[in-house]
Description:
By secondary structure, the chain is an alpha+beta fold. The protein has helices at 4-10, 111-122, 149-158; strands at 25-27, 30-35, 39-45, 51-56, 63-67, 78-82, 85-90, 96-101, 104-109, 127-133, 139-145. The chain has one domain (4-158): Invasion associated locus B (IalB) protein (Immunoglobulin-like, Sandwich). Residues 1-21 have low confidence and may be disordered.
Amino acid sequence: MLTIRGCIILSVIAFSQIAHAQEAVTFGKWKAYCAPTAGCALGTTNEDGDKLVISEPPSRDNKMLFIPTVPVQRDSVMTVTLDGQPGATLGPGDGWRFIETSAGPAIQISPTIAREELTPRMRRRDTLEITYTTDTGTNRQTTIPLNGFADTRSYADDG
Length: 159
């Protein structure tokens, strides 16, 4: 099973310099990998192996990726809640899209939604829940831990 670091390193959106970054800094359930010329990658893995990764290269072309262990149906509407409170409804195309990475398929959450609706609220919450339809047609909810996200975010911001 890939670690969050391995997933980030293998991902096409991650930058090759990450492999040479300083060791990961861990806050709660989150890790940050930062390097002066590569930027930062923040990530966590839940108990089921689902990952949430935020890639922040120096170009500021930030990406929030959800890498589920159970594939998402192509036309699924995804519902994101934070501690059970409304977060965002993501439609295919305008709210999320598939991207291929070296680590396999991932879901890129709309940069605007990630930046304006999710990331600021994630600092003050304990969990982020994502509900979607799987490629077999069943509904699935996965919970991403946010314990340590605020400190990881602050560490990357001070980078």
